[in-house]
Design goal:
Layout (H helix, E strand, L loop, with lengths): L4 E2 L13 H10 L4 E4 L8 H11 L3 E11 L2 E8 L6 H27 L5 H8 L7 H10 L6 H9 L14 H10 L3 E4 L9 H13 L4 E6 L4 H13 L3 E5 L29 H6 L5
Parallel strand pairs: 1-2, 2-3, 5-6, 6-7
Antiparallel strand pairs: 3-4, 4-5
Helix pairs in contact: 1-2, 4-5, 5-6
The structure holds adenosine monophosphate (AMP) and manganese (II) ion (3 copies).
The site of one manganese (II) ion has 4 residues, from loops.
């Protein structure tokens, strides 16, 4: 129950600042006992990470965080225990990454109208590969001295209603779950308290997620307050979802919480890693 686990983190493969191997070393130094890397829409770091984890004896689960549009809202679905080389999953990811590139060009155009020059090249300097994230635009704007930190850039420029925001269509919930399940993984609703949706719609999301075979709910997230963790744990219990926990770590400078530094799953709830489905699909690694 009191396992020091962290099932949500990002590397330079998406919008984090540590390489997959550096992230593994940091998790190891922080005495994490079960660890997943879940880059946005990409699996490229997972082989490097698995090798590094093996070297230091860290139990490692290959993961992903998929961008999904559900009912006109962007939500994130974490997949755990996926095969990084699954062809159908990778075909789906290719489409998401192409959309990221197209969206990036539109964001840059809008930012240029708002007075920023060379935003596309600037953002690409911060991106390591094919994942072009709003985070990279934010890092460029901070570098230009136009905002004090990434959070401020989001608030002023990159969220819905602000000059650099571009909407679009990510994967459907159905596609996301079928890719994760097809790749042998378990699906988790990421940071459920972060979505700007009503309690009723969150319940609808959970109902549809369960109908599609989803099992996990990230009630314990580095981006939740203790009160949100409490409410999300109750919701998971009501819907008989297993609890997942993850820091959503992106970089040492900009942490919600440090790797592994989250509260325990409460007594009375079932952690995802104790479920029969976890044992069946991922194994008895803990
Ligand atoms: P994208 O998937 O490219 O639209 O970017 C989403 C990412 O931006 C998230 O995964 C976070 O890492 C980051 N992000 C979103 N909102 C904020 C915010 N308000 N402050 C800082 N980072 C944010
Ligand atoms: Mn991110
Ligand atoms: Mn997320
Ligand atoms: Mn994340």
């Amino acid at each position: 129950m009191n396992l020091r686990c962290d099932l949500h983190s990002h590397s330079t493969v998406s919008d984090g600042t540590l390489s997959p191997a550096e992230l593994i070393m940091r998790a190891h130094d922080n005495k994490v006992e079960l660890f997943a890397i879940t880059d946005h829409d990409a699996t490229e770091g997972l082989h490097e990470a698995a090798l590094a984890a093996d070297k230091v004896g860290l139990p490692f689960v290959p993961g992903i965080e998929l961008s999904v549009t559900w009912s006109h809202q962007t939500i994130h679905i974490v997949g755990l225990g996926i095969n990084p080389d699954d062809p159908v999953l990778n075909q789906g990811l290719k489409g998401l990454r192409e959309f990221r590139q197209e969206r990036g060009a539109k964001i840059a155009y809008k930012l240029e109208k708002a007075g920023f020059t060379d935003a596309l090249q600037g953002a690409k300097k911060f991106s390591n590969g094919e994942i072009l994230s709003r985070t990279h635009f934010a890092q460029y704007i901070v570098e230009q001295g136009k905002a004090k930190d990434v959070r401020q850039v989001f608030k002023r420029y990159l969220v819905n209603g602000k000059p650099g925001y571009v909407s679009g269509q990510w994967a459907s919930l159905e596609e996301a779950l079928s890719w994760i399940h097809g790749a042998g993984g378990l699906a988790v609703i990421a940071h459920p308290a972060r979505y700007k949706i009503s309690a009723t719609r969150l319940r609808q999301l959970i109902t549809e997620f369960k109908e599609l075979g989803g099992l996990g709910f990230e009630a314990i997230s580095g981006s939740h307050s203790p009160d949100e963790e409490q409410r999300m744990t109750q919701l998971a219990n009501q819907f008989e979802l297993y609890i997942s926990k993850g820091s959503d770590f992106h970089s040492p400078e900009n942490i919600y919480r440090e790797l592994g530094a989250m509260q325990d799953v409460q007594a009375g709830s079932i952690p995802l890693w104790h479920s029969a489905e976890w044992k069946e699909r991922i194994g008895d690694i803990v």
